[in-house]
Design a protein that fits this description.
- The chain is of the alpha+beta class.
- The protein has a domain at about 20-140: Ubiquitin-like (UB roll), CATH 3.10.20.
- It has helices at about 20-30, 40-50, 75-85, 90-95, 145-160; strands spanning about 55-60, 65-70, 85-90, 105-110, 115, 125-135.
- A hairpin with a 7-residue loop joins β5 and β6.
- About 15% of the residues are buried.
Amino acid sequence: MGHTLDAPPTPSVPPATTPPLPACRLAQLMGKTRAFWTIEDLVEVVMEQEIRLVSLMHIGGDGWLKTLDFVPRDLAHLRDVLTGGERADGSSIFAGKGISARKSDIVFRPRVDTAFLHPFASLPTLVLLWSHYDRNGTPLAESPEPLVHRAFERMTQETGIELHALGEVEFFLGKRPEESDI
């Protein structure tokens, strides 16, 4: 898992003295930071860690995190999906968003730097976030990701202000249904 002759040196990840957090485990296994991960790095991890399931996660038209799991038949199948993406029916994934059935072919493409090993799965599982593209390979206009990017660009152009915001996951973890927000 080195670098090619024409590539810049890959920053390595120092060895951990304590077990890495789930988000850092892949960086530890590959010995490089996320920005330098490749599809071949992920394939090597799948082989070395005996990964049996790949979970493709994306934000659906309703704003909820969706998952499409698959079991790679072999390494060629895994490479094919990670390289070319996975086709889907956009008219059902983004129902009511104006995608007609005759133009509904969309492609999920992986964002390699988002990969992580699922810490709670019963089978060894590699998880990746995916983005949506139309049949021409451009980001799908109806997808939440480009909508947020366009809103950011418009706000910056019209106001000169850059909004930097993230979700606060801690409010969604560990809360019992009967507990109130107050």
